[in-house]
Amino acid sequence: MPVGDHALLSASSAHRWLYCPMLPHLEAAYPNRDTIYTREGTRAHELSEIKLQYKSGKIKKREFNKKLKEFKENADFYNEEMEEMTELYTDIVMEHFNSYKNADIELEKRVDFSDWVPDGFGTSDVVILSEGVIEIIDLKYGKGMPVSAHQNPQMGLYALGAYAAYDLLYDFDKIRMTIVQPRLDSVSTVEIFVEELLYWADNVVLPAAAQAYTGMGDWNLSDKVLKWSPVAAKLVPRAVANWEVVDEYIDKTYLDDEDVKDILDHASEIRKWLDEVEADALKQALAGKEVLGYKIVEGRSNRILTNKEAAAAVLKENGFEDIYKPQELLAMGALEKKVGKTIFAELLSEYIDKPQGKPVLVPISDKRPAMNSLEQAIKDFEGE
Q1: How many Cα atoms within 13 Å fall on the side-chain side of residue 351?
Q2: 208 with 17: CB under 8 angstroms?
Q3: Tens digits of per-residue pLDDT, 20-40?
Q4: Where are the domains of the chain?
Q5: Cα–Cα distance, 265 to 248 (Å, whole number)
Q6: Residues 216, 218, 222, 226: what is their CA dihedral angle, to the nearest 10 degrees?
Q7: Which DSSP state fits 196?
Q8: What CATH number matches the domain at 14-214, 3.30.70, 3.90.320, 1.25.40, 3.10.450?
């Protein structure tokens, strides 16, 4: 049951459907999220493939120059950083490739793992084939946060696809999985035995994929599962879980201490859910969908000077001189970075004071020591 050119149970969404099999059919109704970040990533992959084709000897210099010229003329998002980062990434790939004897390399290889996942397929950026080991390498061009190859389901499914494709052609008992994030200077590699991979495939992937394909199973509403789900804000089980916290006290007229503690324990999740509902509704409205009972209006904004130098000149010409802020020191963090942490402390220790922070209510498990003085806490809270 592929959705367009994309598999219902894609490798990139495996971290969701493996743990919450109810999500894929709900998410299928949402269009693929095409953002400036995904388009930028696509261009980086295209440029990397051209460079790897040349560096691995698949194309000659003349064809490489032609492809590179066409890419630079037509590709949006191409800039000096992309040139530098794709060069770094492709150098890392070639370093890995050259570390094997008599190895072959496949680029943008379509891998099929449908023996375990219905209609399961994906595209692996790089597959290195050698006797004893197969390595798959994935480029992640974003710069949000490091991604580990360890227990990474997307890489695991790519590894299954590589195993299915090359098991009869190569004698290997290990699979190496590498994620390269050049903009974060991050390279993560993990190596597993084929037996381990197949055990995971047969005992975890196969039953979970069967449930997810039919839309049956249990709900898992953890942050890890919902973080990138386009339907996270509208899931009824999540709404019910949050409303149940309030419904528990519907027959009461006053909250006792245990009630307050229970509500505080759930406050963070409820607040997060409400924020996501509002954000999703705004996104839908901006896309042209009517949000019942609501409309889009222009929010508050501050006036800005479009040309500060010209504005200053006009004011001076008209006799206004006292128009600049007084000179002030950089912020503490910036000063410390500029001077150096050790020298900064040596020179300015007698002029540095760290006032006590305002009282904050946190769970008892928080590592910070409790404030003991009720009187001091009240004074701090009132700003005395």
Answers
A1: 6
A2: yes
A3: 999 999 998 876 667 888 899
A4: 14-214, 224-286, 308-351
A5: 14
A6: 10
A7: H
A8: 3.90.320
